[in-house]
Prior knowledge:
Chain A is an alpha/beta fold. Helix content of chain A is about 25%, strand content about 35%. Chain A has 9 helices and 20 strands. The model of chain A is unreliable at about 45-55 (pLDDT under 50).
Amino acid sequence: MTRNVIRVEDVSKAYRLGQIGTGTLSDDIKVWWAKAQGKPNPLLKIGQDDHGNRDEEYLWALKNISFNVREGSVLGFIGRNGAGKSTILKILSRVTAPTSGYVKIKGRIASLLEVGTGFHPELSGRENIYLNGAILGMKRAEIDRKFDEILDFSEVEQFIDTPVKRYSSGMYVRLAFAVAAHLEPEILVVDEVLAVGDAEFQRKSLGKMGDVAQQGRTVLFVSHNMSSILRLTKETIVLEKGRMVMRAPSPEAVDYYLSAGNARAGERIWEKDEVPPDATPFRPVALRLLDQKGKVVEVIRSVEPFAVEMEYYLDSPLTGLRIGLYLNSARGDQVLTTFDTDDGARFEKFVSRKSGHYVSRCEFPKDLLNDGRYVLGVNASSYRIRRYFMDEQALAFNVDTSGAPGMQWAEPRPGALRPRLEWKIETK
Amino acid sequence: MLNSTITDAEIEQTDPDDWDMVIGPQRNLLDLRLRELWHSRDLIMLFVRRDFVSVYKQTILGPLWYLIQPLLTTIVFTVIFGNIAKLPTDGLPSFLFYMSGTVIFTYFASSMTKISDTFVANANMFGKVYFSRLAVPVSVLISSLIAFVIQFGFFLVFMAYFALRGTPLHPNWWVLLTPVLLLMMAGLGLGFGIIVSAMTTKYRDLRFLIQFGVQLLQYATPVIYPLSSMSPKYQALIRLNPLTSIIEAFRYGFLGSGSVNFLQLGYSFAIMLIAIIIGVIIFNRVEATFMDTV
């Protein structure tokens, strides 16, 4: 028998679409005045509808979410962008109030939606530790007590009295995370803040998170990184378009999440309303996984070549566009990244692309992947200029290794790759 | 690392009898949550320190600016209104007259201007972590108070200088009213400041209006002229300004010119209370959802 420390009861959150009011007082007064006299809204553009009641245009970021959290459990939240993960964390951290429903909490709660909140560039590292700690809810005495530990963790001892504006971004993040890592609430709400810093520091931070979880504290954790979800949480909630679609042991939830959203296996088609408006002029159509005959498949054979194609429209010409594919294992480990203009000659040829209908197809050689489940992400960007579109979990597929090297031994083989390598055995 | 696959649904659960916190769509609008504010006193002091330290970092004169600002304002007033326009100053040296008005008015003006920026200026921080939102305006009141104390000390120095030169000044027991006057200034700055801050989350126009408005307000307050110099018609108008009685009383206590009018002070106090109550209601409303509008 365990005690619940969080109870979320039928929580919904609506955001009003478009601009709220008109943004300026004088315009709002004009609209109000016209309404009072029964005239049409003077600010509407010609041809635009007057809905009369604009309050009807809501976007439900969360709809009827209910769950509870036991003391000492570590619960993960996964979902695509816009599924409501951040909104639920914001409500739990009291940054914004729900539109309806209640959240009940027992115990001291701290939230970590970002590291380094309130850092002031002019203040020294030392001063910022105190300020940031206090913002996160620590008492001065508590920070005094942990100061050396925080300093040690941050690895920036010699710059502690330098203003943080002179820090490198790595140092800044390390200091910020060091403060956050030493919070000791009974309930900790964490957004994807671990995706910061260099690889080594990430490992250290993940380790610290693991410690927190093992100390019997309750942790709610949002992440895009399936491997950290699997490592840190036992149970995970899957959100989809503001609704809770599943609560299950993490491996099950991760698997569901990775396979969900594909209308047809082996193909991901983007509906109009799934493409954010800021993707313009890039308009994605579909991402497809093809076998060597060009057929859309969900399972590929390791011993055969396969291809991945991205179909899209450009509504106006673009310079420097590159289509990227990210191949990750289902646990979130990166396998490879490739761009359609990696090749020097093709890079020269496609410096700018006219508007039109395109397919960028990438052919993968045979004998590449090990068995297991993989996730393809896609991205359309101009290097250092802008990212037009991104879907980190566009498509999931399985690899079948029948006939691959080493299949005579029925044992799992670690690693994402299973190439056919040339071995020579010589007698001397 | 975690291998058990028992889900919550399979375990018998109990709810605690008393939840520590219930988050709902609406908060009690009149609830100031002073306990929460008291718990964030460390944070408030750190905000004060941050504002104090950061403002003058990378300036040559540093905290001296606290003295230069009122000094320059007073000199400008003395030259323009005293020497050129020759406005009456109740027989007092115009320099002291203007400085007394400027110093206490600045306390109100700077508190109110900064508080009115609470939500917009801290949107980023407020969007990431919850702490008592009132900690920000309260820290502004304290920072401004520190500035006031410095400037007030400076004023006393000039007062002593003029007294030593034989200028007849008449400080009297009414100086003891000063803390009350300051409290009222703080209350008015807080009340109007949080009203405006809550409204700026929706209407950014107010940000520009407030700078200009405070400047105009200064001319509707007896900072550069004594109330007694006005015709009765205008006096009545100026008396509507809740700052009027406070400045007059302050000046009367230290310099012996002006007036202490309890009816007037009571009126100012009432306005202050109303402003704070309205402010808290709007503040509480906006606080719950302003992250969706900023």
